[in-house]
Amino acid sequence: MLKKKQEIEISTEKIDTIIGKETVFIGKVVVNGTLRIEGKIEGEINGKGDVIIGETGRVKGNIKARHLLLAGEVEGNLDLSGKLELTSNAKLYGDIRVESLVIGEGARFIGNSTMISKGEGQSSKSEKAEKE
């Protein structure tokens, strides 16, 4: 019997932190809720929630999060425990490690991809290192 694939939702309704269009942030960002980026970040993003990068958003650095919706540009590696969605005008230059991947027609992705099983996200990798 075939099971219906479970849909993964990226929350765009409840945004906890916004980096505005005219903002440039340099450094490490740690966030537990949903982060929306319309400006520019140079540095690492480490989150437990979702990250939304709008059309004007640019990130130069690695991102760890649950889900990521990309409409702008990222230069860096992604480690996501859930879904990566690239819209039609997204640009991603880096390697990804994700559970689910959706690439819109016209999106640009240059890098390597590793698909992980449910529950094998970023936290399980650090737990394995602690056990060894």
Average pLDDT taken over every residue: 87
Share in helix:
under 10%
Summed up, the domain count is 1
Number of helices: 1
Biggest pleated-sheet summary: 6 strands, parallel
Give start-end ranges of low-pLDDT stretches: 123-132
Classify the beta-strand content into a percent band: 35-45%
Q: How would you classify the helix and strand content by structural class? A: mainly beta
Distance between the termini: 39 Å
Task: Name the strands of the widest sheet in spatial order.
Answer: 1-4-7-10-13-16
List its salient traits:
132 residues, 1 helix, 6-stranded parallel sheet, mainly beta, disordered C terminus
Brief rundown of the structure:
With 132 residues, this protein is mainly β.
Describe the model.
- The chain is mainly beta and 132 residues long.
- It has one domain (17-122).
- Helices cover 8% and strands 42% of the residues.
- The protein is globular, with a radius of gyration of 14 Å.
- The N and C termini lie far apart (39 Å).
- Residues 123-132 have low confidence and may be disordered.
Write the layout of secondary structure elements.
Blueprint: E1 17-19, E2 24-26, E3 29-31, E4 35-37, E5 40-42, E6 45-47, E7 51-53, E8 58-60, E9 63-65, E10 68-70, E11 73-75, E12 78-80, E13 83-86, E14 91-93, E15 96-98, E16 100-103, E17 108-110, E18 113-115, H1 122-131
Parallel strand pairs: 1-4, 2-5, 3-6, 4-7, 5-8, 6-9, 7-10, 8-11, 9-12, 10-13, 11-14, 12-15, 13-16, 14-17, 15-18
